[in-house]
Design brief:
The complex is a heterodimer.
Chain A lengths: L1 E5 L3 H13 L1 H6 L3 E5 L10 E10 L2 H7 L21 E4 L5 E4 L15 H5 L33 E4 L3 E3 L6 H5 L1 H12 L8 E5 L3 H12 L5 E5 L3 H9 L4 E3 L4 H9 L3 E2 L2 E2 L3 E6 L4 H10 E9 L11 H5 L3 E4 L5 E4 L2 E4 H11 L6 E5 L4 H9 L8 E4 L20
Helix pairs in contact in A: 6-7, 6-12
Chain B lengths: L6 E4 L7 E4 L4 E4 L6 E4 L10 H10 L8 H4 L5 E7 L13 H16 L3 E7 L8 H8 L1 H7 L5 E3 L8 E6 L5 E5 H4 L3 E5 L11 H6 L3 H4 L5 H5 L11 H15 L4 E8 L20 H15 L3 H9 L7 E7 L1 H16 E4 L3 E7 L14 H12 L3 E2 L4 E10 L12 H10 L6 H14 L1 H9 L7 H7 L2 H6 L2 E5 L3 H6 L3 E3 L2 H12 L5 E4 L6 E4 L1
Parallel strand pairs in B: 4-19, 5-6, 5-10, 6-7, 10-11, 13-20, 14-16, 14-19, 15-20, 16-17, 17-18
Antiparallel strand pairs in B: 1-4, 2-3, 8-9, 11-12
Classes of the chains: A alpha/beta, B alpha/beta.
């Protein structure tokens, strides 16, 4: 079968990193990703099934990895060669549609008893993602044994599958995984009592976070820093009070929180910042605009950053990560982030974020498009690994494959 | 010595191209045949002995008023208020006229044995002046005699402890002014009346007032009905100030008004071509134009800005009158008209102007997009008496690069106004209802206004309201050479060339539009029949 595969190649990662500074296209072309014919992965035991991806999204973390920008922290948590793709809606051999919850937790590794995190339902914090009978891999899409969404077939454990109701379109379904991440970030942020929240970044994660904040009951001022007009438009339609260019964010928050500008920092600022980018600039900005004792939630995947943490210390700011999903507490009920996300993609019509679809053999175009998404009036770029199958599209998200 | 009056030129094929200001630079533009060019009168001859003229004016007051020497008593409390950095434009060569007047008043006060004297810069909600600016306006002798002892103040419209309510006018307007001024035995106000809008009761009622009082006349409704600001008999802005001024007088504040007019000798001799009629340019003028243009074209913007703001105008004193406010002001208006009035027959479809680098609110700073709008649509559009130079539904073409650039020190609230208010509404009424108070009360803007050199938080609103009359009157505004993002944010159109702008104007006013070019500065006031 055809699959996009990432090989362990230090020179290729290094070249990709260097080339990416000059051109996204060259970064991709010279990088570690190859379209090859491989055998489908074999189920390692009971409870594993084949999944045939219908749509597989290109995530910011995928792009960061392909450009060689991912932190070496992840090296022991992945195994090569792997097939990327963890945002997946696919079908099983019996035709049922499923969405993948990609974390390879204790259940998938036949580890019993499960670790304390998995017992709590915090599968994202699983202690054993590099052990068990699978090769290391924190998620499907980074593990050599299970394949990934950027191929015609991969394998998944039954604990990873969420069956999709009929009324959810494929475009909506492929957004469930990032939406679940956003929901998890919002629910773990301690937003109760917040009156001013800023979301930095308005690509898929930022927009899903915006939608999740409103869906989960936040009614205060919500300001989104969005670089491109399409992002600003979507942020407003998903519940932002203001969607401004990143350079305007500080001014808007200063004015709306009645703050003083002390040097480059606000004297007061937002209660909560969701940094959906994770760059040095956005983390620094977050520390500048968060109020004393406020929180900065890192939703976007950061890498190695060099920055001044004095304001974090002085303002007693909490910098908190938000990774994947799991079982959440909502109004005293235990609900899975994927179930909340399945509802939200439909009510917020998040399928409209899917801007273009590409077959695997046009992966270079697809990845360049994803890297330049905002500039090209796009949000989410997806692969259609099963080229002969038409996706089940809702009216508003029925886009032709990009040509 | 005779001075040639203003002049309306009709362009024909033999007419040379016309000089247009373009911010920190200028250029020549060919106007279509039959266009009108309105030139200002030539500068009036200056008073030969300004100090003597000032002393004479103080001793021979107009209206129901005693000579200044008779009003000065040894044990009195005397306050001298003076116009701030917004006047004159460009700042004049030393000695500034304020210095000459204030030195004379102080000499007379000293002769009368007055000890309790305080000087106040009448800022209203303008920015505080720097020490260098105060020294330039007052002279170092005055500055050093007052500033170190805390006797040179800058009015603070937010200082609740030093604002007093004098009462309400018959229209219900609350009149609050500076406490020191209100409680003085005599308040001497020293004006520079650069245009006919300046002076009269507006000096004290606006210059020394609080934000609460300013709201009664600095609002969209009042400014829309000031037609124009330059004609106080037809200006709601002035009617309100006149009511307030009369209440100030009635409440016992004794105001001795000193008004001065300057001639229109605006630019130093090396820039003489800027105030000469193009067909009369000498070889020297042409060479100066070419050399200056070529030098400016190769000079970075920041440096150009510094060069232009270092210009000191050779303005000279053309008249000085003192005494009772209204009597003084009527005489002042006569002198301003003598210097600036040009009679013009009828309106045109298009009014073209070129904006210079400076307006009252960006001395030593950037003419940001809001100030471009205010200078073009607030000031130049309103340089009329009678009717606007452009017909209702007509087009105003403004030449200015309109950079998307703000001075964070002087104009912090302008930035937020531009980014947050204009993105939502361009309607002066809507923005006044929705945003004005929040900006006016914003603690950070207030802090910067009171302690730094920032305009008050409400100031960008006033600048936009200043455009209300023009925005209601015009069918379109086209800015030639403007930054697209900045111009579009304000709801205007951008053209790359003057000819493109004229072409675009035809979509609004039809083919073959009549064009009037207001050739200013130097300043002029068009009396449109």
């Amino acid at each position: 079968m055809r699959a996009l595969v990432v090989e362990r190649s230090v020179p290729r990662f290094a070249v990709a990193r260097l080339a990416s500074y000059a051109s996204s296209e060259w970064g991709i072309r010279l990088g570690p990703l190859r379209l090859v014919d491989i055998d489908p992965p074999s189920p390692p035991g009971e409870g594993w099934v084949e999944v045939h991806p219908i749509l597989a999204g290109i995530c910011g973390s995928d792009l960061s990895m392909l450009e060689g920008h991912t932190s070496s922290y992840f090296e022991p948590l992945v195994s090569f060669p792997f097939v990327p793709g963890h945002e997946v809606v696919g079908h099983l051999n019996d035709g049922r549609r499923v969405v993948l919850e990609p974390v390879l937790s204790c259940a998938t590794r036949s580890i019993s008893p499960p670790c304390s995190a998995c017992q709590r339902g915090d599968t994202g914090n699983c202690e054993y993602v590099s052990t068990g009978h699978l090769k290391p891999g924190l998620q499907t899409g980074y593990c050599a044994d299970v394949g990934g969404g950027w191929s015609a077939t991969f394998i998944a454990h039954s604990s990873q599958l969420h069956y999709i109701p009929e009324h959810i379109s494929d475009e909506e379904a492929v957004l469930i995984e990032p939406t679940a991440s956003a929901i998890h970030a919002v629910l773990s942020s301690g937003m109760k009592g917040a009156s001013t929240i800023a979301v930095i970044g308005a690509s898929t994660l930022g927009l899903c976070t915006t939608a999740a904040l409103r869906d989960l009951g936040y009614r205060g001022l919500l300001v989104v820093a969005a670089k491109w007009p399409i992002q600003q438009e979507l942020a407003l339609s998903l519940g932002a009070d203001k969607a401004v260019e990143p350079r305007q964010l500080k001014g808007v928050l200063r004015f709306n929180t009645g703050s003083f500008l002390v040097g480059s920092h606000l004297s007061n600022g937002a209660d909560l910042i969701f940094d959906c980018v994770g760059s040095v600039d956005t983390i620094s900005t977050s520390l500048e605009i968060v109020r004393p004792k406020g929180r900065v939630i890192m939703v976007g995947m950061p890498g190695v950053v060099h920055m001044d943490l004095s304001p974090l210390w002085h303002k007693e700011v909490r910098l908190q990560g938000a990774y994947t999903y799991g079982w959440e507490q909502v109004n005293g009920n235990r609900v899975h982030s994927f179930d909340l996300a399945t509802k939200l993609v439909s009510t917020a019509r998040l399928g409209r974020l899917v801007s273009a679809r590409y077959p695997l053999d046009r992966h270079e175009e697809a990845l360049v498009h994803a890297m330049e998404a905002g500039r090209r009036d796009s949000i989410k770029i997806v692969f259609t690994p099963q080229p002969k199958r038409r996706s089940r599209s809702s009216a508003e998200s029925s886009k032709e494959d990009s040509t | 010595m005779t001075t040639r009056p203003g002049f309306v030129l009709e362009i024909d094929r033999s007419s040379p191209p016309m000089l247009f200001w373009k911010g920190e630079g200028f250029g020549l533009e060919h106007l279509p045949p039959s266009s009108r060019v309105i030139y200002p009168p030539e500068p009036l001859p200056p008073l030969s002995n300004p100090r003597a003229a000032i002393r004479r004016a103080l001793e021979e007051p107009l209206g129901d008023c005693k000579p200044l020497s008779a009003l000065l008593k040894p044990d009195m409390k005397l306050t001298i208020a003076f116009d701030d950095i917004s006047l004159p434009l460009p700042p004049m060569r030393s000695p500034d006229i304020r210095q000459l007047v204030i030195e004379t008043v102080l000499e007379m006060a000293a002769e009368a044995g007055v000890d309790d004297v305080v000087l106040i810069a009448a800022l209203a909600v303008h920015r505080r002046m720097t020490e260098a600016e105060l020294r330039h306006a007052l002279g170092s002798r005055v500055y050093d005699s007052f500033a170190p002892y805390g006797l040179l103040m800058q009015h603070d419209a937010c200082d609740e402890d030093n604002i007093v309510l004098l009462g309400h006018t018959e229209a219900g307007e609350a009149v609050e002014i500076n406490k020191r001024a209100a409680t003085s035995d005599l308040l001497v106000y020293v004006n520079i009346n650069l245009v006919s809008m300046d002076g009269g009761h507006k000096s004290v009622a606006t210059g020394l007032s609080s934000y609460r009082s300013l709201r009664y006349h600095h609002n969209p409704a009042t400014l829309a009905n000031s037609r124009s600001f330059m004609d106080h008999h037809h200006s709601e802005l002035h009617h309100s100030n006149w009511r307030m001024g009369r209440l100030i007088a009635k409440s016992g504040v004794s105001v001795f008004q000193i008004e001065t007019t300057l001639n229109t000798n605006t630019f130093p001799e090396q820039f003489g071509f800027l105030q000469r009629r193009e067909w009369e340019w000498s070889v020297k003028d042409r060479a100066a134009y070419l050399a200056t243009s070529s030098l400016l074209a190769r000079t970075p913007l920041q440096l150009r800005r510094r060069l232009f703001h270092s210009i000191r105008s050779p303005h000279a004193l053309a008249s000085v009158q003192a005494g009772e406010v209204e009597a003084v002001h009527e005489r002042t208006i006569h002198h301003i008209h003598r210097q600036q009035l040009v009679r013009v027959e009828g309106q045109s479809d298009v009014l073209a102007v070129g904006l210079p680098y400076i307006s009252p609110y960006n001395v030593n700073s950037i003419l940001n997009p809001i100030l471009v709008a205010s200078l073009g649509l607030g000031y130049f559009f309103n340089m009329y008496k009678g009717k606007p130079l452009v017909r209702p539904g007509g087009v105003m073409i403004i030449h200015h690069p309109t950079p998307y650039e703000f001075d964070i020190v002087q104009h912090p609230s302008y930035i937020d106004f531009f980014e947050q208010v204009l993105t939502e509404t361009k309607d002066p009424v809507e923005m006044s209802e929705k945003y004005e108070e929040a900006f006016a009360m914003d603690p950070w803007y207030t802090h910067l206004y009171r302690t730094g050199h920032a305009y008050h938080g409400v100031h960008p609103f006033y600048m936009w309201y200043w455009c209300t009359h023009a925005l209601e009157h015009l069918g379109a505004v086209i800015i030639v050479g403007g930054d697209k993002r900045a111009v579009h944010r304000m709801g205007f159109k951008v053209a790359s060339t003057f000819n493109d702008a004229l072409e675009m104007a035809t979509d609004v006013v039809g083919a073959d539009p009549s064009v009037t070019y207001l050739h200013t500065p130097p300043l002029l006031l068009a009396e449109v029949q």
